[in-house]
Amino acid sequence: MKKPLVAIAVLGTILATAAPVLGLQKIQANEFKPSMACLCHQEMIDEWTPTMHAKALSDPIYRAKRADAIAATKGALAPFCDSCHGPVATMGGEDPGALEQISAASRQGVFCDFCHQVQGTRVPLGNASYVVNPDGTKRAQIKDPEAFIHLAEYSRHHTRAEFCGMCHNVDHPVNGMHLEATYTEWKASPYAKAGIVCQDCHMTPGPGPSKPRPGQAAMGGPKREDIYDMSFVGGNVALGNPKAAQANLKAAAKLELDVPRSAEVGKKAKIEVRVTNVGAGHYLPTGLTEVRQMWLEVKALDSGGREILSERRDFGTVLKDKKGNYPAELWDAVAIYKDDRIPPQESVTQEYELAVPDGGPVTVEAALKYRSAPEELAEKAGVAVPVTSMASVAKTIGGDGEAAADSAGGGLSKTLLAIVVLGVLGAVVGAVWWSRARNRR
Ligand code: HEC
Ligand code: HEC
Ligand code: HEC
Ligand code: HEC
Predict the structure, then answer these.
(1) pLDDT digits (tens, 9 = 90+) for 13-61
(2) pLDDT, tens digit, for every residue of 316-365?
(3) For ligand 4, which residues put their CB under 6 angstroms from it?
(4) Cα 396 to Cα 259: distance, rounded to the nearest angstrom
(5) Cα–Cα distance between 73 and 272 in angstroms, integer?
(6) Which residue lies with its CA nearest to atom 31 of ligand 2?
(7) Which residue in 109, 214, 344, 408 has the most C-beta neighbors within 10 A?
């Protein structure tokens, strides 16, 4: 009983002097304007509004975990949590415990004026290492800004993954253990080597590094060859932009299933499932992986529809505390007890053996699923957190010669592709015919 109290007291004294320990600057919250003030960038306001950045401080799932952290450490941890989820409130010395009592800008979590008044980062990177300069100058990647409402200047920092790494690397504030390491995962990946940064996937429309994207940085501004959007889509279907998050999750993984064409009676059939991280620039899952749920479900049904195999593999991390107990909460964690995540562009395989009593047919189904928070946390926060199917595939063993039939989405998308190709060809032929007919006139 005494030891945890001592630990809490120590943590308390370290964090009570939050600003210096966290290395945070002191600012006035009113040096930052709420997003509504950025009205020449209405399109970006619309992109940013549904994001988890906009909700980082008010997010009910965050509020629920923050309350647990406060209860476990007598409030000592709150400024640490808030330093990334509510940077301006924390630097401004406001208490985001009561959201309605803090300034309108602070309440918006990670918002335009915060990101665009960032001037650099402290080292080491991570744990809210941002350095701001709230002098009214807005900083971004544009080398020849033509803004007239405010000053604007080029910032190389905004073009680099390190900008995101300031918050997307979370270490335990006392023992230094890596709790979230999305930036570090990316840094070691083929994407970093190829120069593809977070911004290329998360600040462009749709999944994947889609560039360049011509457009205007502001209403009435010059046409530019390549601008970014403020959509920051991840995998949060419950609270973010659900359609875009689902598309991202579906683009992240490829699922392959190998089954024998036929099964010999009395022998076991070998089933192999392979999951590849084809789309994420970091581990799959990444970030808060002791909370996120991603799992592989493999089922086999015999000709009578009876389930003859049902297996599950959970991806993610399980944390342990200093006594070796698991699962441990973020703040009690000293190490990772179990780690099953898929690095970028790598695969994991899982094998099963199956007795096929009468030679088949047996239908084998594999599905990869994702849920951003477990039932218990979702209920506590009062949020419905849906399950998203990231990928699925089904094949048949034995039966009437329909051996190893692939009934995955691939079949459908090939048909769709054929229709689209035919459609485009038709349109081209039509256009050529029309323009010829016109020229003849
Ligand atoms: C999480 C931080 C973050 C937030 C929040 C954010 N931005 Fe940005 N913004 C960036 C970064 C980083 C870039 C540069 C991207 C690059 O070049 O790789 C950028 C680029 C821009 C640009 C330059 C033009 C363009 O689109 O590329 C403008 C203008 C802009 N942001 C306005 C806004 C507005 C308005 C909001 C709020 C509605 C906002 N930003 C929210 C980080 C942020
Ligand atoms: C160094 C920055 C940083 C600190 C400090 C931090 N977080 Fe976070 N937090 C993040 C980032 C980045 C994400 C998004 C990661 C992801 O999507 O997996 C996140 C996501 C979360 C989520 C998931 C929200 C949802 O809707 O799914 C919860 C809950 C959360 N944090 C709680 C906390 C608590 C409690 C603390 C304090 C003990 C804390 N965080 C401290 C950066 C931070
Ligand atoms: C000031 C800290 C901070 C910075 C800087 C930051 N983020 Fe975040 N980001 C967060 C927090 C906190 C969350 C989680 C909010 C939550 O879920 O409650 C988050 C969540 C996200 C998510 C998950 C959204 C979802 O729907 O699951 C993505 C993607 C993301 N950030 C991308 C970026 C990119 C790209 C950059 C760099 C251009 C960046 N972030 C910079 C703090 C930050
Ligand atoms: C090649 C494209 C790509 C790059 C590069 C990339 N991401 Fe992602 N990211 C994805 C995809 C796809 C997902 C959705 C699957 C998932 O949740 O991991 C995702 C998910 C996320 C999430 C939400 C994770 C969750 O489950 O809550 C965060 C946070 C995030 N990315 C941050 C970053 C940061 C920070 C960087 C740079 C250090 C980065 N990403 C680089 C493609 C990318």
Answers:
(1) 444 444 445 789 999 999 999 999 999 999 999 999 999 999 999 999 9
(2) 999 999 999 999 999 999 999 999 999 999 999 999 999 887 777 999 99
(3) 161, 164-165, 168, 182-183, 186, 191, 196, 198, 200-202, 207, 209, 234-235, 248-249, 251-252, 279-282, 284-287, 292, 372
(4) 8
(5) 46
(6) 62
(7) 109
